[in-house]
Task: structure prediction
Amino acid sequence: MGFIVNKFVRLTLGQTFWLKMVLHVAALSLLSLTFYQAYSDQLGADPVEALLHFTGIGAFNLLLLSLLISPLAKYLRLGQLLTLRRPVGLYAFAYGLCHVTSYIMFELQFEWSLIFSEVVKRPYITVGFSALLILTLLATTSTKAIQRRMGKTWQKTHNWVYVASLLVALHYLWSVKSDLIQPIIYAVVLLTLLATRKDKFLKPFRSALNRRNKRQQNKKKLA
Ligand code: HEM
Result:
């Protein structure tokens, strides 16, 4: 199917450029509009909750989109799509940062001692905080120059995006008091996207198994 689609669909440099433009305009305008609505009191009865919801869900959606790009590019044989991974990942981080900043500014009103105790005492905040730390590491090491300098460790470091997304899914599940349907749907979508990478996750186990089998065969030959 991917082959058939690829016969008709090819992304030129210009089309890739426009795809990136659509991403920049959509991500930046939605974020600015929501903060403007919060500022001008147009976000309903609880604007802080609405802001936390929009930025939190926005960050999670973008994280899922960044995980969708690779399998989609492989399936459609459109390698150019891979160039979208970096901006999408950076927007996921930016939305996550706005989410946490809104919480610190509007919920905790910059009470730094409170921030520390929230991270320590409330497990769902601890989990969200850990996810943000990982996303910060990934965003700050995402440039081409750093990628070149890090060599092979870059890919290993960036595989931590899988851990970060699992932590976000857990943070979401844990933060919800009642209706669990939506966070469960998000968790299922995430697990499906991770399942498309099962070969990558199983590779270290398979290599270890192969090494063990070879050792056993060599022992048998020597015996
Ligand atoms: C220090 C880090 C974080 C803090 C303090 C934090 C705080 C919060 C709070 C207070 C809520 C609302 C819970 C409620 O409704 O009572 C929330 C929900 C949520 N957060 Fe975070 N969060 C953090 C990190 C993150 C990150 C990194 C992401 C995503 C990349 C994220 C995604 C979400 C999502 C999807 C929700 C559910 C939104 C909803 O349905 O209302 N959070 N978080």
